[in-house]
Amino acid sequence: MPKRGFHRARIIDTLWRNPLPTYHYRCKNCGYDFTEQQSFTDDPITVCPKCSQEQVHKVYSAVPIEFKGHGFYRTDKSSK
């Protein structure tokens, strides 16, 4: 039996070696939402895997950003 944490380390190693971005798609015809890992050079998916119509488009959303450390907050500025 593998040691505890082995599975997680294997997943992280796989992602490090093959970091594919995940894209969110939605079908305009049937409303089916799905995500797909694709290379930057792959063509976008246009055919819905559920209804087989060419009505699929990428769904864009805001990327979460977390600011940590000094210099990001109003209280960090020096008073001059």
From TrEMBL:
Pfam families: Zn_ribbon_8. SMART domains: CxxC_CXXC_SSSS. InterPro entries: Regulatory_FmdB_Zinc_ribbon. Residues 21-61 form the Putative regulatory protein FmdB zinc ribbon domain. This is Type I antifreeze protein. It comes from Bifidobacterium myosotis.
